[in-house]
Amino acid sequence: MNENNSNKNAVEEYLAVRKILPETAQAFGVYGDSEDNIVFPYYDNMEAFEKGDAAFQKRRPARKLDHKEAAQQTTAEGKPILFGMHLCDPAKGALYFFENEFECMAGYQAHGCNCVSIPDVDSDFSWNTECAKFISGFRRAAVITSNTDSGRKLALEISRKLEIPADMPDKKLYKNHKSISAVLYKEGDSGVSDIIDSAKPEPIPELMDISKIPLLSVKEIPLVMTGIKELDRATRGLHFGGVDVWTGKTGEGKSTFLSQMMLEAIEQGYKVFVYSGELEKEQFKRNMYAQASGTAYMQVFTDERTGRTEGDLIPEVTERIDQWIEGRFWLCDKNFPGIHEPEKLLKLIEHAYRAYDCRVFLIDNMMTINTTGKGRESYDIESDFTGRLCQMASKFGILIHLVIHPKKTDGRPVMYNDDIGGSLKNANLASAVFSVRKVKDKDEKHSGQNAAFSCMKGRNKEADGSIPLEFHPISNQFTSPNCPERKYSWDATGLSMEPADQLKMDADELPF
Questions:
Q1: Residues facing 433 on adjacent strands
Q2: Pairwise CA distance, residues 146 & 221, whole Å
Q3: Model confidence over 257-310: pLDDT tens digits?
Q4: Measuring CA to CA, which residue among 89, 88, 31, 105 is closest to residue 62?
Q5: Parallel, antiparallel, or unpaired for β 271-276 and 329-331?
Q6: Which stretch of DSSP H or E encloses residue 469?
Q7: pTM for this entry
Q8: Using an 8 Å Cβ cutoff, are 430 and 383 in contact?
Q9: How far is it, in rounded angstroms, from Cα 290 to Cα 318?
Q10: Residue 357's closest CA among 68, 185, 156, 96?
Q11: Angle formed by the axes of helices 254-267 and 281-293, nearest 10°
């Protein structure tokens, strides 16, 4: 602990309440500042620790905080890395991940070295990129989080993003306690050590005892909704863990529809990744921002050069959408060298998931990806790429939309799996196959309808057939016929996501 701290006793007293020993705090370099804050410095290695050269640090008051106060009064600065890295040694076994500094120090105090904690439970996992070399030095990891729904969810997210095998502890050993800090306070070091020791690798990682798999109710299955009730009913929502193939003739709306689906994902709290192999970034942004804005916030005019009715976004609206979408939408630079190579794109998808926590992905489209090569048929390369996308979707629990142009259909609508261009394996590998198309005046259609959605393969056998849509040409939005345009939450609050659920500890039972 910093010997120059005038309020050292206040910090030591609070740590003592949590049963963190002075020598434990000293090992991590934890100290108090002049305002009765505990300072948690994050060091890359022992050399940095000895020099006092912290890459990152957090501070919070040295007293019990309620959940809202904790979120407001905890501050951080620097490069996000893992807390406790300087005390770790790969030669001494697995790397143990905890969700905050107090839990990490409890683990170290009870069990020894190789205990680290992440910078923030709501972080974008950029620490995984910053610490990739450090983590790769370990053969295995274990993720020790709170015994709560949010803790178990966090443990799953961390384990998925690590590139080394990760084990979980036996939650029964927590008894009735929700956190490692609570175990230390109530059961002592031995209780914490027992939990850490229980994190064992499975004898055969590829096999699972089905009785140990949690059974989710239908209400708990995570979904991305389309925002159009008739489509959500027909598709049962868009599911994570698979690849959905989208098709349709050129210019009939599939890319525009999927752009809107990216906004819907953001509205529901997910970060998204888009590879658009055809549109320039400026045109893509203009089209999507028109969808986010809606006609009500656009200046509609007749372009004298073309005679067409067009719409421009109001500058103030553009600024608010920028604020709403910042950090949640990642667009590939289609002019970046090698970006259209399958291997490069697959690595970029994985990186976006691990570093930025992207959960919904759009690959638009297969035609712009380089699937030609010597010695192998293009169809085989295509199906290999689709297969690897499916494996990634399943492994990481993400949703991938893949656009594939159709074959020529001699003028009839694209309505069948066999209409999809390229390898027939693409449709077979996909979790679902959808199409979007225009509906012409001569076709039988509902009032207000000028487009249609079809589910050609899906989870709901009743989803066959055509669902009427209305396309709004100024805003590029799709809605049900005769329905108002979609409004997004930037309009009301400037934010798309509800505040992250605070971790609910047994705070009333503990003095910290």
A1: 245, 457
A2: 22
A3: 999 999 999 999 999 999 999 999 999 999 999 999 999 899 999 989 999 888
A4: 31
A5: parallel
A6: strand 466-472
A7: 0.72
A8: no
A9: 9
A10: 156
A11: 60
